[in-house]
Amino acid sequence: MKKLFAVIGDPIAHSMSPAMHNDLFQTYGVDAHYQPLHVKRDSLKEALIGLKAIGIAGFNVTVPHKETIIPLLDKLDPLAEAIGAVNTVVNEDGEFVGYNTDGSGYLQGLLTQWPTIKGKNILIIGAGGAARAIYFTLAQAGVKRLDICNRTIQKAEELINDCPFHVPSAAIGKEEAEINLSDYHLLIQTTPMGMAPNIDSLPLSLHKLQTDALVSDIIYNPLETKILREARNKGAKIQNGLDMFVYQGALAFEKWTGIFPNIERMKNIVLNQLGG
Ligand code: ATR
Question: Ligand 1 center to residue 150 CA distance, Å?
């Protein structure tokens, strides 16, 4: 019988995961279908009971359920537990097991651009859920320094204090980050600033950016945000959010099927969707 997979969230209509995963199921001959499911904030518990009753094989979790789903799951992967957010669930013999592939997806995408992260000074801009997954993953992987610049400094401090993996870190404001920008080898932009329709917003000035730095934005719509355009104009290397999106999906697909899929194929599907 055809296996069912899904993504649950609110809103969900514009998710690109269904096109990506349905193409992969077809490509790899997996008899399965991936369905977007609109689950409102207050209906999560009932939705999970229903999904279990119909024997769903696995699903992705997106805004606003990534954190609130945790107490409703049967088991939790230790990294997802530390991060406090789940984006992938696997039905393992009737038990819903939660994983987080956002941070590891980001790291795998980063390593395609950069041979190593060891010895690097990194600045994360923003302290929301995505920043948290990336911070915990990079802290666990081991980097030289991992600072967080956020509008609300207290939120960055909390994120750093919550992390079980030690790495030299500071929570800083925008002005301090701008003054010390030349200290960083990599900037990771995780706020919604620059995302469509707010394409003219810039989280900080790149005046002091090292010209050999890498600036990475987790946004993929538009593919080149204002911060990436400014970084490119300064001669820096840039990376958009397509890699993170595709790799988090590839890692979820691997957990469900045991197959690590073709990344270029996935990128083309997403680019087609964006173009359409
Ligand atoms: P996600 O969970 O998707 O990563 P989020 O939780 O909404 O996103 O977090 C967004 C991050 O972008 C937060 O760090 C937020 O800053 P605050 O902690 O001060 O709220 C930051 N952010 C969002 N809009 C911003 C803006 N207009 N200016 C500066 N920072 C902004």
Answer: 8
Closest CA to 78 of 188, 198, 197, 164: 164
pTM beyond 0.85: yes
What tokens does 29 get?
């001959």
Which protein residue has the closest C-alpha to ligand 1 atom 15? 126
For ligand 1, say whether the CB of 193 is within 6 Å of any of its atoms. Answer: yes
pLDDT, tens only, 134-159: 999 999 999 999 999 999 999 999 99
pLDDT digits (tens, 9 = 90+) for 96-117: 999 999 999 999 999 998 889 9
Residue position matching structure tokens 């069912």? 4
Whether the CB-CB separation of 211 and 234 falls below 8 Å is answered with: yes
CB atoms within 10 A of CB 264: 9
CATH 3.40.50.10860-classified regions of the chain: 3-100+243-273
| Catalytic site positions | 66
Q: Could you tell me if 8 and 59 are in contact, meaning their C-beta atoms sit under 8 angstroms apart?
A: yes
Residues 264, 27 contacting (CB under 8 angstroms) = no
Instruction: Please identify, by atom number, the ligand 1 atom nearest to the C-alpha of residue 191.
Output: 12
Q: Is 151 in the pocket of ligand 1 (CB under 6 A)?
A: yes
The boundaries of every CATH 3.40.50.720 domain in the chain are 103-240
Please give the CATH number for the structural domain made up of 103-240: 3.40.50.720
Q: Is there an atom of ligand 1 within 6 Å of 127 CB?
A: yes
Q: How far is the CA of 135 from the centre of ligand 1 (A)?
A: 15
Which superfamily does CATH assign the domain made up of 3-100+243-273 to? Leucine Dehydrogenase, chain A, domain 1 (3.40.50.10860)
209 Cβ closer than 6 Å to some ligand 1 atom: no
Residue 129 in contact with ligand 1 by CB distance below 6 A: yes
